[in-house]
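F.,

This is the one I mentioned.
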């Protein structure tokens, strides 16, 4: 794909980055939680490259969306999930939901569920919207290493393996999102973050 470039997150550069995503590029971009490593989730070759960059990852990749309509393109959003989404999105909460066949199996490691969320950061939302409404959004680090909070950490470790790094300064929350499984009867936290199970359960009653 050529040499990696670091671009400031201006409107012009966000647009250019989205055009690169559509062509199959890998991009690192700021979200509200940590920096994300992303690509077009419908581009199987690009998704395979993400797994290669991450290293030992055997887990499915989460997908970020710019709005609820985009979320509905890839998951079945049941009533409870919709309630939780309306309360906490945009924000640091990833929902595990039943996936639709529109999303390639490579993204989910052939599982019939996928983690989705809408991030609380305009730069990320603009990039995702301009890229088609959906973007793979795994943390920008090697599997097992700490997620990156700023661009200098990323350039050092992943700079040679991606096409564009969009620099939006330090991230807001600095830690990954809460992950909650809503495919089971009782919502189950798979990864703790800034939103707790009690807050989620409250919405469902």
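My design for it:
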């Amino acid at each position: 794909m050529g040499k990696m470039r670091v671009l400031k997150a201006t409107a012009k550069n966000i647009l250019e980055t989205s055009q690169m995503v559509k062509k199959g590029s890998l991009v690192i971009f700021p979200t509200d939680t940590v920096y994300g490593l992303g690509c077009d989730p419908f581009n199987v070759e690009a998704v395979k490259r993400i797994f290669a960059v991450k290293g030992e990852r055997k887990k499915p990749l989460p997908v970020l969306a710019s709005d609820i309509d985009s979320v509905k393109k890839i998951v079945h959003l049941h009533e409870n999930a919709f309630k939780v989404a309306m309360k906490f999105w945009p924000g640091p909460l990833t929902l595990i939901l039943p996936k639709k066949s529109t999303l390639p199996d490579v993204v989910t490691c052939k599982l019939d569920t996928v983690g989705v969320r809408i991030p609380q950061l305009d730069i990320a939302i603009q990039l995702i919207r301009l890229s088609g409404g959906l973007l793979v959004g795994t943390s920008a680090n090697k599997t097992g290493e700490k997620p990156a909070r700023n661009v200098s950490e990323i350039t050092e470790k992943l700079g040679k393996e991606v096409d564009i790094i969009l620099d939006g300064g330090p991230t807001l929350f600095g830690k990954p999102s809460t992950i909650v499984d809503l495919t089971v009867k009782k919502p189950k936290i798979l990864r703790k973050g800034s939103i707790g199970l009690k807050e989620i359960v409250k919405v469902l009653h």
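The domain at 5-203 is CATH 3.90.870.10 (DHBP synthase).

Talk soon.
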